[in-house]
Specification:
This protein is mainly α. The protein is built from three helices and no strands.
């Protein structure tokens, strides 16, 4: 347990950020999954879902949620899957 005032504040900040990061990461994963499923099934909304997922991943990378190369890899794999199915 933290004893210093600054350490107590840092713990509060870390807990708040942890929850925010968890929620944001979950939203990105969900968007990627919806986009992947739409691409595989040939859904008419596949293009919009893929673009939305791509935007979310890029935004998460700029906020430090994902490493830049991790985000790039995720975007690349989604685009590759979409082009293989001739969606985009």
């Amino acid at each position: 347990m933290a004893n210093h005032k600054s350490a107590i504040k840092r713990n509060r900040q870390n807990q708040k950020r942890r929850v925010q990061n968890r929620d944001a990461r979950s939203a990105v994963r969900t968007a990627l999954k919806h986009a992947r499923v739409a691409v595989e099934t040939g859904d008419s909304k596949a293009v919009q879902l893929a673009r939305a997922a791509e935007r979310m991943v890029a935004k998460a990378a700029t906020k430090g949620l994902y490493h830049a190369k991790t985000a790039s890899r995720k975007i690349s794999r989604l685009a590759k899957a979409a082009s293989a199915k001739k969606v985009a």
